[in-house]
Amino acid sequence: MSKKSKIIKVTGMTCEHCVRRVKKAL
């Protein structure tokens, strides 16, 4: 949960499959 988390959140909004990958990693 750091700078990467913020970037992922912003990119996740546009990258749906990206969010799923991040959620799985979390």
UniProtKB/TrEMBL annotation:
<dbReference type="InterPro" id="IPR006121">
    <property type="entry name" value="HMA_dom"/>
</dbReference>
<dbReference type="GO" id="GO:0046872">
    <property type="term" value="F:metal ion binding"/>
</dbReference>
<dbReference type="Pfam" id="PF00403">
    <property type="entry name" value="HMA"/>
</dbReference>
<protein>
    <recommendedName>
        <fullName>HMA domain-containing protein</fullName>
    </recommendedName>
</protein>
<dbReference type="InterPro" id="IPR036163">
    <property type="entry name" value="HMA_dom_sf"/>
</dbReference>
<feature type="domain" description="HMA">
    <location>
        <begin position="4"/>
        <end position="26"/>
    </location>
</feature>
